[in-house]
Write a structure and sequence with these properties.
Structural class of chain B: mainly alpha
Strand order of the largest sheet of chain B: 1-2
Number of strands of chain B: 4
Largest sheet of chain A: 2 strands, antiparallel
Oligomer: heterodimer
Mean pLDDT of chain A: 89
Low-confidence stretches of chain B: none
CATH architecture of chain B: Up-down Bundle
Radius of gyration of chain B: 20 Å
Helix content of chain B: over 70%
Mean pLDDT of chain B: 91
Low-confidence stretches of chain A: 439-470
Number of helices of chain B: 12
Order of helices and strands of chain B: HHHHHHEEHHHHEEHH
Largest sheet of chain B: 2 strands, antiparallel
CATH topology of chain B: Formate dehydrogenase/DMSO reductase fold
């Protein structure tokens, strides 16, 4: 069998970037969650918040660590697998990522040590500042990287001068047409991810009858955040849909599963299709009548545009885009339902006692991660065959590296990342099984900046014991 | 304003900081392999835990600045060093996750310590291989990499890899002398007694070998002969002092001398490579991206780098002094 370097380079990038995004999604969400929890602790002085903080901090630390080391890989992979892409796009996206490193990575890294190990060296207030800096760092980082990726989706602000790409307007590069919508979409996705994780773990403890106060507080917080966020996300998602329909119609045509230039009227909403890309038709299709017209055209009998509107050599593969979109959208509907149900149960005072609902929350623990991954598959596979939409085709962007080298490093990545994810899951489950009680609180909420300048006072165990919260 | 020169200086600055800062982190990791006592291994890792992430970030800074300011060089060098870069990244991955995973388990901590040490060792070796490969030269045709991925499996990159391994071990031992308890300090002194002379000798062998196989170096020697010979003498003197003073002197001295060795080494490398960005075939002006990108990155760097340095220094200062016996968290 002859190996195709372009396929291997793409699989390698898809694999490493998919693996990577799981962890920033968690750490963006958890960093802000931790900042909120520490603020609540400082305000209320309730040690339960410190317990929640310490519990989720250890899971945050692991996800952050994996996010860092798998992220470094990506910053070099543009050149390793896609040298012609790096050569062309470097002046635009390289600059954005350089600013990301300067304004975000260093900020996160500089304050991460204090956040993880500094609580009783610097005192709670400066420690809270460190937590906020890490959380802000994750937001800045997301803003730059979404600017870079959105520029690949909807490039703007550049021109080609003697076969080199030149940026003519930085504002247009950064605030490109899709960035203002895709950034809040991703951030909300990260917050939803954290909310469902927090609520899911709390629900598990409630079902087991363990760590009651911790569990009640986190289920309450998690479902409350999730309810507000999913309501916002449905709205933001609709804006993203509209933007992509305008700037990258082929992606949305593939996502809806229609082939004909104009679908039948009324259009159904497909949930299951077997697409036949070669013959430009579906072998099988099943959906809910009328719903396609209602959702996609906001009328009862409107027609939806199909993929044949896009020339064949510019079409993405329909199956991948369609199902990735269905997974994301299906999970969003589930999340929305969970939000509404949680409001109802909260109102009836049964949020902590409805076992079926708690079980649902447990099953929804990874829902945010899966939905986010699926969303990124829509974005990235739906952009194909382009790597920079309308400017550079993916097949023309592959490095001069032999297929054997690509294959062996792909296998190496799969093996190493399998070790990482297994260890992460084992240790996370271990932390969950051990429970929050194993994270002893050891600093009260009345510290000041002064402690940062006199850490030796706090190093004295006798003083520390006195300051502990029982 | 010569923007490409400024961008190249910023890349060199970021790389220097990376080599120095992650150098002692990786060095501590390498020495972990030779430390039999579990308590001491914990102590060694604790000494670098709060600050390693910021140290590692400088390599990303250098990499993406290269991408933004010298995209042609980036797209030649990464395919050229495909295998060592990927092995380095995987090794850095193992090293990085081991920080988090080793504290989660007592039963299997030893395994994660091995992952930590081997990760540090492989990362250090591969970085040396890349340096050696750069000096050896990269095959370029039509502004694309035109060589094979196995071109780096030659004597010079291998010598350079082993040299850097010992160099980082020197920095790691210096760091431990400064930051750890007496028992680990003693271990650090013993490590220095081996690593410092070996590093010095290997470095010398590498230089002589490189001089013999790379005509580019000979021509650079012709133009910067005085400066380069001063650096060689300086390196020999500092390496000798370091070897002689492993036991005596202040605890900060070995780290200081180790850093001096690296600064001298990097200065020599800059003199040899300049004005190339892909050594001996592509100058930094030929590889530069348009001036708008150079300006964007440089203005950002001018404003943000001082702030970055300030709070990084603050983080080091928060965790100053000897590493507590039970780690920083307790």
């Amino acid at each position: 069998m002859r190996l195709d370097p372009s396929i291997l380079a793409r699989i390698q990038f898809a694999f490493t970037v998919s693996f990577h995004i799981i962890f920033p999604t968690m750490s963006i969400g958890l960093a802000s969650f931790l900042a909120v929890i520490e603020a609540l602790w400082l305000k209320t002085k309730d040690p339960l918040y410190l317990q929640i903080y310490k519990f989720w901090l250890s899971i945050f630390a692991m996800s952050f660590g994996i996010g860092v080391v798998t992220g470094i890989v990506l910053s070099f992979e543009f050149g390793l697998g896609f040298a012609p892409f790096a050569n062309m796009a470097g002046p635009a996206i390289g600059s954005l990522i350089a600013l990301e490193v300067l304004t975000a990575f260093f900020l996160e890294a500089g304050f991460l040590g204090i956040m993880l190990f500094g609580l009783h060296r610097v005192g709670p207030k400066l420690h809270f500042f460190a937590t906020c800096m890490v959380a802000v760092g994750t937001l800045i980082s997301a803003s730059w990287i979404l600017a870079a990726n959105s520029w690949m989706q909807t490039p703007a602000g550049v021109e080609i001068r003697d076969s080199h790409l030149t940026v003519v307007n930085w504002r247009d590069v950064i605030v490109n047409p899709s960035w203002p919508y895709r950034l809040p979409h991703m951030l909300t996705a990260a917050y939803l991810t954290a909310s469902f994780m927090v609520a899911g773990v709390g629900a598990w403890y409630l079902l087991r009858g363990k760590h009651q106060s911790f569990a009640r507080r986190t289920v309450s917080l998690g479902t409350a955040f999730a309810t507000v966020l999913i309501a916002g996300q449905v709205f933001i998602g609709d804006l993203v849909y509209g933007t992509m329909l305008k700037h990258q119609p082929s992606k949305m045509q593939a996502a809806e599963g229609f082939w004909e230039k104009q679908s039948q009227s009324p259009a159904p909403y497909y949930w299951f299709i077997i697409p036949d890309q070669t013959n430009q038709r579906n072998r099988f299709e099943a959906g809910i009548p009328y719903l396609g017209s209602i959702w996609l055209t906001h009328s009862l009998r409107g027609r939806v545009e199909g993929l044949r509107n896009t020339p064949r050599d510019r079409q993405p593969i329909m199956g991948v885009v369609f199902y990735a979109f269905r997974i994301m959208y299906g999970l969003a509907i589930l999340m929305f339902t969970m939000g509404v149900v949680s409001l109802w149960l909260r109102f009836r005072g049964r949020l902590f006692s409805s076992r079926w609902f708690l079980w649902m929350l447990v099953f929804m623990t990874p829902s945010g991660i899966i939905a986010t991954l699926a969303g990124w598959y829509v974005a990235e596979t739906g952009r194909q065959p382009w790597v920079i939409y309308g400017m550079l085709r993916t097949v023309d962007a592959i490095s001069p590296v032999p297929a054997q080298a690509l294959l062996s490093t792909l296998i190496a990545f799969v093996c190493v990342y399998a070790v990482f994810i297994s260890a992460f899951l084992i240790f996370t489950l271990h932390i969950i099984r051990r429970g929050p009680a194993a994270a002893p609180p050891h600093a009260d909420a009345s510290g000041s900046l002064k402690n940062a300048f006199r850490p030796h006072v706090l190093d004295n165990p006798a003083r520390v014991v006195n300051r502990r919260i029982a | 304003m010569d923007l490409p020169l400024l961008s190249a200086s910023f890349v060199a600055f970021a790389l220097t900081l990376y080599v120095i800062l992650d150098g002692f982190d990786l060095g501590v990791g390498i020495l972990l392999l030779f430390q039999p006592a579990k308590v001491s291994r914990d102590h060694m890792v604790d000494s670098i835990t709060p600050t390693w992430d910021g140290n590692e970030t400088w390599i990303i800074m250098a990499g993406v600045t290269l991408l933004a300011a010298f995209p042609i060089a980036y797209s030649i060098l990464l395919p050229a060093f495909y295998l060592p870069v990927i092995l380095m990244l995987l090794a850095l991955g193992f090293r990085g996750v081991s920080f988090e995973f080793r504290v989660q388990t007592t039963r299997h901590r030893r395994r994660w310590d091995v992952a930590f040490a081997v990760g540090s060792l492989v990362a250090a070796f591969m970085q040396g291989v890349i340096v050696g490969g750069l000096v050896q030269g990269v095959t370029v045709a039509n502004q694309r990499f035109a060589g094979g991925v196995l071109n780096i499996v030659r004597p010079l990159p291998i010598i350079s890899g082993v040299t850097l391994l010992f160099g980082y071990a020197v920095l790691g031992a210096g760091w431990l002398k400064l930051k750890s308890n007496p028992s680990v300090q003693h271990f650090a002194s013993r490590s220095l007694r081996v690593a410092a002379p070996v590093f010095g000798v290997l470095f010398g062998i590498g230089c002589i070998y490189a001089f013999n196989i790379q005509p580019g170096i000979r021509s650079q020697w012709a133009s910067h002969g005085t400066a380069l010979s001063c650096l060689v003498v300086l390196f020999a003197v500092v390496a000798g002092t370091l070897t002689a003073l492993t036991e005596r002197g202040r605890p900060a001295l070995p780290l200081f001398l180790g850093l001096c060795l690296f600064v001298v080494g990097i200065s020599g490398m800059v003199l040899i490579v300049f004005p190339y960005v892909v050594p001996f075939s592509l100058s930094l002006w030929d590889a530069a991206s348009s001036s708008t990108s150079q300006q964007f990155v440089l203005i950002g760097a001018a404003f943000v780098t001082p702030v970055v340095l300030a709070y990084s220094a603050f983080a080091y200062w928060i965790f100053r002094g000897r590493t507590p016996e039970k780690g920083w968290g307790e």
